[in-house]
Amino acid sequence: MLEVINLVKDFSCIRAVNNVSFNLSAKTITAVIGPNGAGKTTLYHLISGELQPTSGSVKLNGRELVGLSPHKIVKAGIGRSFQITSVFPSLTVQQNIRAAVIARGDRQFNFWQNLQSDISLKQTVSEVMSLVGIENLATTPLQHLSHGDRSLVEIAIVLAVKPLLILLDEPTAGMSQSETNRIVELIRYLQQEMGCTFLITEHDMEVVFNLAELIIVLHQGSILAVGNSEEIKNHPDVRRAYLGV
Ligand SMILES: Nc1ncnc2c1ncn2[C@@H]1O[C@H](COP(=O)(O)OP(=O)(O)O)[C@@H](O)[C@H]1O
Ligand SMILES: [Mg+2]
User: Fold this and answer.
1) Is 38 in the pocket of ligand 1 (CB under 6 A)?
2) Atom of ligand 1 lying closest to residue 45 CA
3) Which residue has the least CA distance to atom 9 on ligand 1?
4) pLDDT tens, 67-104?
5) Per-range mean pLDDT, top range of 15-29, 138-152, 162-176
6) Domains of the chain by range and CATH?
7) Which ligand 1 atom is nearest residue 34's CA?
8) Which of 156, 192, 1, 182 lies closest to 79, judged by CA?
9) Which letter does DSSP use for residue 62 in this model?
């Protein structure tokens, strides 16, 4: 589904992503791991279009994404989490999801408001809230949510545009154990029951080993290893460079 080919990103004096290539299949969960500064977030931004690569290619079902605006990349089928604090803190969860669907979305919800599009918009909003299990938060203003609930709302907003591939950058960062578990369960449910495809960056190794079928280890911008959790746990270079063994 996703092909990343020889991707390079240079900042002024550092090569943050160095010739990275990998493929993702549909309906899988892949995690990108690596120590701080390894290039995970940069890679994420290169795929979502917030950063332009120095060279290389990113293809979604054969279509080149490099050069498209972030908005077009969302439309092409890549959903990504974003800073929800930049949305509308005083509006409710329901209103925010609704706004996200309209702003990022389907032509069907654009511009010509009519009864039919209003009904299908309401349906989309309530479907994603129930999928994520946040119906109880529908009328809560965003600013009153806990950190964990805010992440669930972020995932709901991503789902609302029905992406082919979902990118999440450290979805459990700063969360309690129970909030982390809930996110892990949700991601697994969405993959297994809904056939969603995920690429996540994650620092929590327990989450990664628990969730990801394929793990890509980045080290100083380059791929150090690729494999399943057993292969990664036992990989000598990974143990040396990352697990500190
Ligand atoms: N906008 C930027 N300008 C200059 N250097 C950057 C920028 N963003 C990231 N870097 C550098 O690129 C490297 C990779 O960073 P990042 O992708 O954030 O790593 P990670 O997410 O794995 O912690 C780091 O050395 C970081 O300092
Ligand atoms: Mg990062």
Assistant:
1) yes
2) 17
3) 42
4) 999 989 988 999 987 654 456 888 999 998 888 777 76
5) 15-29
6) 1-77+166-245 (3.40.50.300), 88-162 (no CATH)
7) 22
8) 156
9) T
